[in-house]
């Protein structure tokens, strides 16, 4: 990890979020991206993206990586994502893009493992097998989020 | 209107939005504010605020004024608000704060009049008689947004 890693990752993060917002909008979702997204100020207050279609609410944390590998996320960040989703009556999830694979994948929150006091991890294998994001979202909408909520 | 009027209004706009976000969060809503809110870049892309509780989605344009008077809004802005709400299955509305009155009021989109090719207006009288914002939102949730959607 070189000196500007943090900054580089935030820049990449913002462009990934914009790409995903545009993709979701084209698919008919109402989509909003949090303010100062990718910056430290935002962290822990807003989710990266909220996408809504016909009252189905998806609360999304966006992760983009160059290569397929485990992804670590602050546990606090996951807790905030869950709390936002709880209030909204929506589903929290992680949208992952591995640049070399060129697809967006959906990782349900149940596949995010707590690995320490302050860190969570999405295993490489989970990401590899994760469903295509758009297929996932549409299947959740067709299924009805109610089944998620009562789980 | 003095030289920096536009800029001043944007600054006021952002602080009003932050105040409203905080108020809504305390009332149990999931709330997100659009990026670069108040700036020209954002205009026409995102609503100012999206507030969600238990799958009831409110798509909100925020207006703060020092004194009670007519409020003019770009018609394009209103159209975008409606489109976002249509996709979300939610309700578009204007949250108005008149500083001297110290309360937030809710103006339903049906009370926003088209007055020219590119401008809409909320009449002073409408603002004066508008319901308290929190009461309005809670009554809409209790009523069920379905009745709004089928109107």
Key terms:
homodimer, 151 residues, alpha+beta, Trna Endonuclease, Chain: A, domain 1, six-stranded mixed sheet, three-stranded antiparallel sheet, 5 helices, 9 strands, 30% strand, globular
The value of Rg of chain A in angstroms is 15 Å
Number of helices of chain A: 5
Spans of chain A of 5+ residues with little confidence (pLDDT < 50)? 38-44
From the N-terminal CA to the C-terminal CA of chain A, the straight-line distance is 39 Å
CATH architecture of chain A: 3-Layer(aba) Sandwich
Strand order of the main beta sheet of chain A, please? 1-2-3-5-6-9
State the secondary-structure class of chain A. alpha+beta
Order of helices and strands of chain A: HEEEEHEEEEHEHH
Biggest β-sheet description of chain A: 6 strands, mixed
Catalytic activity (chains A, B): Endonucleolytic cleavage at a junction such as a reciprocal single-stranded crossover between two homologous DNA duplexes (Holliday junction)
Binding site for Mg(2+) (chains A, B): 17, 48, 61
Family (chains A, B): Belongs to the Holliday junction resolvase Hjc family.
Subunit structure (chains A, B): Homodimer.
Structural commentary:
The structure is a homodimer of 151-residue chains. Chain A is an alpha+beta fold. Chain A has one domain: Trna Endonuclease, Chain: A, domain 1. Chain A has 5 helices and 9 strands, in the order αββββαββββαβαα. The first copy, chain A, has helices spanning 5-26, 75-88, 124-129, 133-143, 146-149; strands spanning 30-33, 49-53, 56-65, 71-74, 91-98, 103-108, 113-114, 119-122, 131-132. A 6-stranded mixed β-sheet of chain A has the order 1-2-3-5-6-9. In chain A, strand 5 and strand 6 (103-108) form a beta hairpin. The longest helix of chain A has 22 residues, at 5-26.
């Amino acid at each position: 990890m070189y000196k500007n890693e943090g900054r580089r990752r935030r820049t990449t993060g913002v462009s990934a979020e914009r790409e995903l917002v545009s993709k979701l909008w084209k698919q008919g979702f109402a989509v909003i991206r949090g303010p100062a997204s990718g910056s430290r100020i935002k962290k822990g207050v807003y989710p990266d993206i909220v996408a809504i279609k016909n009252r189905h609410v998806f609360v999304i944390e966006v992760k983009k990586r160059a290569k397929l590998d485990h992804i670590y996320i602050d546990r606090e960040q996951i807790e905030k994502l869950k709390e936002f989703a709880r209030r909204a009556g929506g589903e929290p999830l992680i949208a992952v893009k591995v640049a070399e694979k060129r697809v967006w994948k959906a990782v349900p929150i149940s596949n995010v493992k707590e690995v320490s006091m302050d860190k969570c991890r999405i295993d490489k294998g989970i990401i590899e097998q994760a469903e295509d994001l758009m297929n996932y979202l549409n299947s959740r909408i067709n299924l009805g989020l109610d089944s998620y909520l009562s789980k």
